[in-house]
Specification:
globular; 7 strands; Rossmann fold; binds S-adenosylmethionine; 7-stranded mixed β-sheet; DNA polymerase, domain 1; alpha/beta; 312 residues
Length: 312
Amino acid sequence: MAELKHIPVMKDECIAGLKIKSGGIYFDGTLGGAGHSYEILKNSSPDGKLVATDLDEYAIERAKDRLSEFDGRFKIVHSDYKNFPEIKKELNIDGFDGILLDLGVSSFQLDDKTRGFSYMAENEELDMRMDKQNPLSAKTVVNNYDEKRLKEIISEYGEEKFAASIAKKIVETRKSKPISTVKELNDIISSAIPKKFQQGGHPSKRTFQAIRIEVNGELDGLYDTVISMCRGLKKGGRIAIITFHSLEDRIVKRAFRELETDCICDKSLPVCVCGKKKEIEIITKHPITATEKELEINGRAKSAKLRIAERI
Ligand SMILES: C[S@@+](CC[C@H](N)C(=O)[O-])C[C@H]1O[C@@H](n2cnc3c(N)ncnc32)[C@H](O)[C@@H]1O
């Protein structure tokens, strides 16, 4: 088993921002290496409770160990955090004091080369599934999607300038033999990007990110989930969301704005007819980013943006 060395991103900012307190009840939708969950349980001692979800059974096994000192105070559900409303209902929880999402992939998922998330692997299968029960893997995407869709995904989710030529090369290559390994995909990407544009970072970085987002449906339903999570907070409860991608961040910002907006009636009307009421206060007018000090020890935090809101 790979050594667990996930460093929780903006740990102090999340704990302070969520106003963790004894006796509180919290939801961590992206348990991962349990870095944030550990801090939530520690800071809500002696009696705070935590419900956590993750798609990755392997992460859950590791996390149970990491949290063992808090046995009896947490419940882990192997589930998509998008099932938040059902989980809340099933566990008979009226409202949470705090909810955390730390989106994307964890460093130990990336470090475990057998999972196929990392372009640093070689002959490992193209997989990238967080949940082994997911029928869609990176191999399926790369070998079955048409060129137009591949280009869209690589361009939109990876913000890759050379998306068109990468998609074309993928389709050309797979005509003779299916693309199976990380190395095969790396070679295709590298041959599709002119050498002079391969200076800043690994040429596969953006394409791998794009395929991973597609495989795990990372943007699907995020807006509705943020809305239902905000509504699942107690009055005064807080939600903190860390994103690593501009599209994710935009979705979170839009959902927060929607809930922060009061009456949307035309100003000329004497009384409100829309009935829309403000439901949250946005605490972070601008997203919080990692400090220089944190970036020195955790480069992964570089693109992280933290947004916090409070239920009113
Ligand atoms: C960035 S890591 C979280 C790290 C965690 N906060 C920590 O401190 O160790 C993201 C985790 O969320 C999980 N994940 C991603 N999307 C998910 C989803 N839709 N539902 C549940 N878990 C998800 C991934 O499997 C991964 O373990």
